[in-house]
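Notes taken during the Thursday session

The instructor put the following on the board and asked us to keep it in front of us for the whole hour. The protein is Putative thioredoxin. We were told not to look anything up and to reason only from what is written here. First, the residues (315 in total):
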Amino acid sequence: MTAQPPSDSPAHLRGAVDLSSLGSPAPSAPPAGGAEGGGSWVIPDADQRLLQQLVQLSAQVPVLLHLHVPGDASSDALYRQFADAVDAQAGRLVLARIDVAADPSVLQALGLGAGPAVMAVVAGQPVPLVNQEVPAETLEQLMGEILEVARENGVAGSVPAVAPARADAAEPAPAAPPVPPLHRAAHAALAADDLPGAVAAWEEALKDTPADPVAQQGLSAARLMLRTRDADAAAVRSAAADAPDDAAAQLAVADLDVLGGHVEDAFARLVRFIALHPGEDRETVRAHLVDLYTVVGVDDPRVTASRRRLAAALF
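Then, after some discussion, the predicted structure tokens were revealed:
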């Protein structure tokens, strides 16, 4: 199920899978079940029948979907991490865990091959987040970014507890840090489909804080989107196939591959080019590859593996 969202959806959400037709219509939001002494905003046993209500709820607060694989240690760790982070926000977000082994049609509807994963649903439209546990600092920043994107799209409410307090809850975590003004400006530009404006905002943010990893990744990603915005994928791939020694042609295909999720293919293409071309193009391609590492995330295992292959190709 890959129905497109309506044309008036926020620009940065266009092309996402539309969840609005999933599940059975329901007259009310998920039931509140706060127990004495507090409640939780985590629904541990959601299923496809509840999805319609969750989609409706995402017009009021962001809804995170944990696509859970029972018996998978990484899935359990991902759930605990996001459950604690969501409960720390006390109603500004809701998390629902769905057993995708019991109901694989949810994965199919979302266009995913397998779990575990966490997706955010904002105003009815899902945005992929992560498929593995992330460092605490990254998680805090991610929660702030989710709330900021939601606010920019008119989703800034709060809801009462939707479940009893969790027995496995960790000690209360600090609330997500405020999003810096230039980060907000970059997100606003993205929401308005203004990629040059987003690039400019991230550049200004890095002038203030050159080592800011979020701004570094945001700038690299915005530049990638700008480079590929008007690309004709068939023409780009044909040109690269006809000119295997042309650095620009190979870089253009690698950009499309990263944007399309074929990260390992992109990295392998550029490492291979570097290994076979010791001339002046080598540094250009190496620098571009390092920038794509930033887009994907320096802690991503695919980046770690590619860095090892790059070192071997260089030395």
